[in-house]
Amino acid sequence: MSEFPRQTPREGHAGTGAGAITPDGCAVEVYTRLPVGDEPDVIASAVPAGATLLELGCGAGRMTHPLLERGFAVTAVDESPRMLEKVRGARTVCSPIETLDLDERFDVVLLASFLVHTADVRVRDALLRACRRHVADGGSVLIQREGEDWHERAPRERRAGDGLVRIASVQPTGEPGVSSVHCEYVFPDGTWTQTFPSRRMGREEFEEALTGAGLVVDAYLTEDRTWVRALPVR
Ligand SMILES: C[S@@+](CC[C@H](N)C(=O)[O-])C[C@H]1O[C@@H](n2cnc3c(N)ncnc32)[C@H](O)[C@@H]1O
Q1: Which of 27, 53, 103, 116 has the fewest beta carbons under 10 Å from its own?
Q2: Does 184 map to a domain?
Q3: Does ligand 1 have an atom closer than 6 angstroms to the CB of 24?
Q4: Which residues form the Methyltransferase type domain (predicted)?
Q5: 179-207 tens-digit pLDDT
Q6: Angstrom distance (rounded) from CA 16 to CA 195
């Protein structure tokens, strides 16, 4: 039995499979298995060495651990205590991002994993305001957004360690611009799924959302424009 009570799923989010499932439908077990990609390299090349870094929605530390190895001082935030118990070597904070108020500023605030595409615009704006609230003057916010055609390119799949990540379907929810994404994580010893709503956001709409939170795009860091460095506006 877990010492943590079961958390209420966020609207439109669901997950299946063995072990704990977070309110946004992620399986803790899956996130302990998924290998890290080039994310730490993208981050390290965009910010000063040794920076203090606030990672929002850190999960099981897939990116946290390589960032710590690169010398960043990481504070890792997640609303799932079951995810956070997998994080080693970082200061951890268990909280929804929307209401996070650490009374502290960081050189870098990281909002990865496409959380900025959350379907509810009030939640999205609250996520971005949390980034703005915690970034130091002269610091930066790194955001990972979806690729332009991701809502059209389904089904699609990729290998991940000894597993397979399949975006099985992306279906309209009835709300303009919002799709329900269904992912399958297939490993030799088990299968997990996550379903979540995603709001499509072109470049213009994304930049407008940043403006509303007191942030401005400084640079698109990757050719596909999925990684963005934003700066606080005074
Ligand atoms: C898709 S996982 C990604 C984890 C990690 N960023 C990675 O790339 O491995 C998303 C994580 O963000 C957390 N999360 C999602 N929305 C959140 C919110 N509004 N506040 C706090 N945590 C959130 C979930 O609990 C989950 O651990």
Answers
A1: 103
A2: no
A3: yes
A4: 54-143
A5: 999 999 999 999 999 999 999 999 999 99
A6: 9
